[in-house]
Amino acid sequence: MSENTSDTRSGLDAGAMDTSIRPQDDLFGFVNGTWLATTEIPEDKGRYGSFDMLREKAAEDVRVILDEVATDAGHGASDTDGDDVRGKVGAFYASFLDAARADELGLAPVEADLAAIRDAADLTELWRVLGRLQREGVGGAVAVFVDTDSRDSSSYIAHLEQSGIGLPDESYYREEGYAELRGAYERHLAAMGRLVADAGATDGFDAGRAYELEIRLAGAHWDRVRCRDAVATYTKFTLAELEESAPAVPWRAWFEALGAPADRLTHIVVRQPSYLEGLSETCTQVPLDQWKAWAVRRIVGSMAPFLSAPFVAENFDFYGRTLTGTPQQRQRWKRGVDLVGALLGEAVGQLYVERHFPPQAKERMVELVDNLIEAYRIDIADLEWMSGETKAKALDKLAAFVPKIGYPDEWRDYSGLEVREGDLVGNVRRAHAFETDRDWRKLGSPVDRGEWFMPPQTVNAYYNPGMNEIVFPAAILQPPFFDAEADDAVNYGAIGSVIGHEIGHGFDDQGSRYDGVGNLDDWWTADDRAAFEELTGKLIAQYDALEPRDLPGEHVNGALTVGENIGDLGGVTIAHLAYRLSLGEGGLDSAPVIDGLTGEQRLFAGWAQVWRGKARPEEAKRLLAIDPHSPSDLRANIVANLAEFVHAYDVKPGDGMWLDPADRVRIW
């Protein structure tokens, strides 16, 4: 390769690379091979990589803040309400760190709930108890949330979806490949039942009967591929129609206990209608005492991480050690950071942004987003497979994209949340109830298009089709994703491709069904949709044939991962175009050579660096079943489809990254 022609830092981690691996054979291995060979997955993780390393950094940054506010809270009042956000964050975190208090309380924080279940005289009364508990964070047989109406994005509507199981997915209850795991799960439920009995609050619960009920519920679940279908998962009912569809479910008692406003619950979107029919049959056919056993299991399972050490240990033994292969429970402070971030996310985020998100990072991201949108505009205009009629609507949608960068313009108001010193389970429940009530208040209110669904300290990004927005929290805007001091090529390959990926979700197999204002609307011509589905079908088949590095012999589910694969493919393609445009008239030839790599080569290396990671076999298998994202090595090497990558690294027939041009997929 050529000598360096610039003193600028590339942004690539040369020490992680393995130059004995040819990028023409395996870009992921070339960029990450030494790291893969020398890095052990931490004992408290099922997988580890670039995202995890940055999450660890964010957690350390947040820990410093939480330790300070927890100390401050310890010098103040024992209960915090009103506008004292710092005090609430500190008191909540301190209540989680107090393991001795949790051990002292044992099962006491949920004893009243167990008694309420035991005393329920009939199914309606039991579902009333379950509704109250669900408002406070205990999972039920049906999940409920409020979001924009996919057929009318100017209004909010309640959504119902399948729930009620303890294994990751309905396939775990039926496929032979999970038989051993099912046995371990049954033993876990029995162990939880014994812990409840040993605590003296009740006689425990019949784990076998609780598991049998889960099997019934799982049998009515839709699989994950079907659940991705934006059209199939939209069925609007009135409350009367919901009751008619699933008559044995005590809907009104449940909604009332959940705090749903009866006068605004006029319509409901049911995401899996046949599941509710199966649930209704289960309500009719399963005796009350079996429902009670299942209900006790739901309470204990939901609250186990916040109870005494034996419950915490047993919960981790199955969900961590067995399910993901993780040998060691995460340190308590890390779990506390996660919990407070999940339940008081923007309160923590506001403190995080004050210290860790400089204004210039947001300014640079605005520029990058604008460049990626412009690149998409050029790319769409030049597409050969799409008609002018559909292109015009695609460009209208692109022009309507709303980028959100770093943090919200207005912070969430937590003044109505009460946090009590030394009351961890109570704090958890009140925080969940606070969020549930906030969700219900959306019904009948104007849509808040400034709302964020990830707090700023999150290392991630998302596209929201109902608002046609792309969102990049502050914590992801750091190396290896974004380095303000590094050369542009790697930034375009990393955060540029992530931006392109999220924009691409607006045009993937499901996002493309929404128009520019966020409504489900078929804006494609029939021929264009057919051409698009031919291309996506080709991508599905390509990924169906792939085996992840961490789980040889197993195959990716191309239909489950197709949306994310479209995002990856479009993201890196458009990032390459945006980088080329950023170089002006000189084009790619004007880019300096740094670390022996051309600008074009560094861009693709920056993309592969983002996906650095490895997983334990157990976790790799779990993710293969439930994760809509492909394994990290296959995400990096999707660039084999790009003529730009072939040109950049002079890939030839016989090389590991070579795909015959007829087999390459290019959508955007």
UniProtKB/TrEMBL annotation:
Keywords: Hydrolase, Metal-binding, Metalloprotease, Protease, Zinc. GO terms for cellular component: plasma membrane. PANTHER family: FI17812P1-RELATED (PTHR11733:SF167), ZINC METALLOPROTEASE FAMILY M13 NEPRILYSIN-RELATED (PTHR11733). GO terms for biological process: protein processing. InterPro entries: MetalloPept_cat_dom_sf, Peptidase_M13, Peptidase_M13_C, Peptidase_M13_dom_2, Peptidase_M13_N. Pfam families: Peptidase_M13 (PF01431), Peptidase_M13_N (PF05649). The keyword Protease applies. Residues 460-665 form the Peptidase M13 C-terminal domain. Belongs to the peptidase M13 family. SUPFAM superfamilies: Metalloproteases ('zincins'), catalytic domain. One of its GO terms (molecular function) is metalloendopeptidase activity. It comes from the Bacteria. It comes from Mobilicoccus pelagius NBRC 104925. Residues 23-408 form the Peptidase M13 N-terminal domain. This is Putative metalloendopeptidase. Its cofactor is Zn(2+).
